[in-house]
């Protein structure tokens, strides 16, 4: 089981960002979208931040199971289109030994359903963590935050970026500034003509 966790961990480091429906070709996933775009916000979204911090490096038995458990959960969720899991992005730091995974879900209820399912990887991993909690003497810290947002109540803006975050999950559309502040979707052909790949013709978002 430990070897499997390490294998999943290496896979996560190799692919620190993923979203459902992403192109198989790595170059296409990273293709720059020239211009200004905003994420389509017609669907609800739940953003789940989960992180870990190694506090006592010598207490390997305390922090290693936590570090190796998360990659397996990510793989399990990614393999299940019905889970409601839409994508993730892994961030290291700011301190050495800290990691945060930004996860995008269809809705907060999907997160809770996964967490409470005894047949999935999270439930036994959580139970094992609390069994080790007192003996590990604070070897590892964990935290999470959930933000559940209704349709139309969020904005995600990108300029000269490949599809990223919510924009990668829900899709992109050209954006222009509103007269009274903020941004809105654009169908202006003059502005749309300026959109394209970094080195080529106009791109369809």
Structure described in brief:
The chain is of the alpha+beta class and 205 residues long.
Based on secondary structure, the structural category is alpha+beta
- Report strand %: 25-35%
Largest sheet: 5 strands, antiparallel
Order of helices and strands: HEHEEHEEHHEEHEEH
Low-confidence stretches: 196-205
Structure annotation, total helices:
7
Which sequence of strands runs across the widest sheet? 1-4-5-3-6
Span between termini: 42 Å
Q: What does the overall shape look like?
A: elongated
* Rg over C-alpha atoms, rounded to the nearest angstrom: 20 Å
Question: For the residues shown, what is the average pLDDT?
Answer: 83
Beta-strand segment tally: 9
Q: What proportion of the residues is helical, as a percent range?
A: 25-40%
List keywords for this structure.
single chain; 205 residues; alpha+beta; four-stranded antiparallel sheet; 7 helices; 34% helix; disordered C terminus
Structure notes:
The chain has 7 helices and 9 strands, in the order αβαββαββααββαββα. It is elongated. It has helices at residues 2-14, 26-29, 60-78, 108-115, 122-136, 165-170, 189-192, and strands at residues 17-19, 33-39, 45-54, 85-92, 98-105, 140-149, 157-161, 172-177, 183-185. Mean pLDDT is 83; it is low at 196-205. Helix 1 (2-14) crosses helix 3 and helix 3 runs antiparallel to helix 5. Strand 8 (172-177) and strand 9 (183-185) form a beta hairpin. The strands form 2 sheets. The protein has a 5-stranded antiparallel sheet with strand order 1-4-5-3-6. Strands 7-2-8-9 form a 4-stranded antiparallel sheet. The protein is α+β, with helices and mostly antiparallel strands and 205 residues long. The longest helix is centred in the middle third of the chain and has 19 residues, at 60-78. The N and C termini lie far apart (42 Å).
């Amino acid at each position: 089981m430990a070897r499997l966790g390490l294998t999943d961990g290496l896979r996560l480091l190799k692919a620190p960002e993923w979203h459902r429906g992403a192109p198989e070709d790595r170059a296409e996933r990273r293709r720059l979208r020239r211009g200004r775009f905003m994420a389509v916000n017609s669907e609800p979204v739940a953003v789940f931040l989960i992180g870990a911090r190694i506090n006592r490096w010598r207490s390997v038995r305390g922090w290693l199971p936590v570090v190796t458990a998360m990659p397996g959960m990510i793989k399990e969720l990614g393999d299940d289109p019905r889970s409601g899991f839409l994508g993730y992005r892994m961030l290291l730091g700011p301190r050495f030994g800290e990691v945060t995974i930004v996860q995008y879900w269809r809705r907060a209820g999907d997160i809770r359903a996964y967490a409470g399912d005894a047949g999935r990887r999270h439930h036994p991993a959580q139970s094992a963590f609390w069994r080790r909690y007192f003996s590990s003497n604070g070897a590892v810290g964990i935290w999470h935050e959930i933000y559940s947002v209704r349709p139309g109540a969020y904005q995600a803006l990108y300029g000269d970026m490949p599809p990223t975050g919510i924009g990668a999950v829900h899709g992109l559309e050209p954006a222009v500034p509103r007269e009274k502040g903020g941004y809105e979707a654009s169908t202006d052909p003059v502005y749309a003509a300026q959109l394209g790949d970094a080195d080529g013709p106009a791109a369809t978002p």
